[in-house]
Amino acid sequence: MTEYLRGQIAKMANVNMETLRYYEELGLISTPLRSQAGYRLYSDEVLSRLVFIHNAKLCGFTLKEIKKALTKSESSGISIDDFVNVVDKKMDRVRGEIAKQEIKLTAIADLRKNLLATDKHPGVQSTLEILKMDS
Predict the structure, then answer these.
(1) pLDDT digits (tens, 9 = 90+) for 91-111
(2) Crossing angle of the two packed helices 17-26 and 6-13, in degrees rounded to 10
(3) DSSP letter string over 59-88?
(4) Which residues are paired to 4 by β-bridges?
(5) What is the mean pLDDT of residues 54-79?
(6) Sign of the C-alpha dihedral computed for residues 19, 21, 25 and 30 taken in this order
(7) Around Cβ 32, how many Cβ atoms within 10 Å?
(8) Quick check: pTM over 0.85?
(9) CB 111: neighbour CB atoms within 10 A?
(10) How far, in Å, CA of 126 to CA of 83, rounded?
(11) Distance CA 70, CA 91 (A)
(12) Which of 63, 83, 64 is nearest to 73 (CA)?
């Protein structure tokens, strides 16, 4: 079994060393063994978990959701169908967030268009007056 020091595994997993300690506190990774000199020694299994956590976060999963999946997988296991359902729900939430952001983007584009217009919308004119800007 390969063992890594905290700095080594942090670099390999592309995480901050304090993140390792935080993940230990949350129970996302196991508490590492210690060397005779007292250094924390992390295993390949921890490295695999860190990669999993990183990838799950990239997909938008929260640490709470990741911990729930890891805990369930250790106790009763997770079927592929269950995992697909979780992924489907996450995709639906992301689509909802994208829709909200598109609404914001449209509003910002309209604001920009109105700011540059010769005949400004009364709401935009009011905003310019509040911000003490010349129209």
Answers:
(1) 999 999 999 999 999 999 999
(2) 90
(3) TT--HHHHHHHHHHHHHT---HHHHHHHHH
(4) 42
(5) 92
(6) positive
(7) 19
(8) no
(9) 14
(10) 51
(11) 20
(12) 83
DSSP result, 87-98? HHHHHHHHHHHH
Provide the 8-state DSSP code for 16.
Answer: -
Beta carbons within 10 angstroms of residue 15's beta carbon: 17
Q: Which residues pair with residue 5 across a beta bridge? A: 41
> Which residue from 53, 59, 56, 60 is spatially nearest to 19, judged by alpha carbons?
53
Interatomic CA distance for residues 73 and 78, integer angstroms: 5
Tokens of 94: 């992301």
pLDDT band for 89, please (50, 70, 90 cuts): very high
Look-up of token digits 């400004």: 120
pLDDT surpasses 70 at 57: yes
State how far the alpha carbon of 132 is from the alpha carbons of 48, 127, 128, in Å: 56, 8, 6
Order across the sheet with 33-34: list the strands. 3-5, 40-43, 33-34
DSSP state of 134: -
Q: Which helix (H) or strand (E) holds 115?
A: helix 80-116
